[in-house]
Predict the structure.
Amino acid sequence: MLILGSPEELDKRLGIKNRLTFRTAGDGLVVAEVDNPHASASICLQGGHVTAWQPKPAALPVVWLSRLAKFAPGKSIRGGAPVCWPWFGPHATEAGFPSHGYARTVPWAVTQAVSLADDATQITLELINSDQTRALWNHPGKLTLEVTVGQTLKLTLTTGNLGDDAFVISEALHTYLQVGDIARTRVLGLESCEFVDKTGPAGGLRRRQEGPLTFTAETDRIYVNTTADCVLEDPQLARRIRIAKSGSRSTVVWTPWAEKAGKMGDFGPDGWREMVCVESANVLENAVTIPGHGSHSMSVEYSLEN
């Protein structure tokens, strides 16, 4: 059942004492706030968009949110973990359709909120289908996101096919991760993987990763046919972020660097230095075909290591 209403109404129906409350942010968007013995987190109901996660021992968040992020109806939020679905990047045939699909900019509803036995907090959300969404993607589908906030942050995105005919999706959890300095950061786990370099010529060049991934300029790469964990090493903050996934065969890594971030307007002067996106995905040849009345789940779990 989709549970809708004002923050006050949601608090009455779903609030968990000293664990989960609801508030309004920006231009009227509803946000769920989690604060339990393990961590704090925020989830915007527009887009099913996790905007923050910070384990209690951590001095800084693990999930990065721009200081200039705008919470406005129908607009994407800079930072957090946007849901890219049911396509990734530009639409294959319709240039006027939104990049990365529509899931991240339309309303979602909470269907369940519970405290687990280990004191983690679990919230399940469902995308609200409408005439607006059907005009962009007219398939009988159901999309849910299960968010588990505890010692780790676990996100599970599930696509259900409610019809008889198969359909194809591409998807990503476009998570922005907080780092001390992108120039000192490196990503482990993608060694020897094939990738498409989206900063190159039209269509992108196919190359193979040699050694750990480091950053000296704009980076936009789609690594294909990889199910491996990634580890984000951050000597500036003296920590490692582990990204463990399942149901995903692509990993996307993105940082805009200074010039591109300056043109976007919602990064701030040095925001790009403090983030990198390591995205669990199914894109390009790893797009997923979901048979009639079938389903597909993609999960990712973030954990903080010293």
Summary: The chain has a mean pLDDT of 96. DSSP finds three helices and 23 strands in the chain. The longest helix spans residues 7-14. Residues 146 and 273 are 30 Å apart (CA to CA).
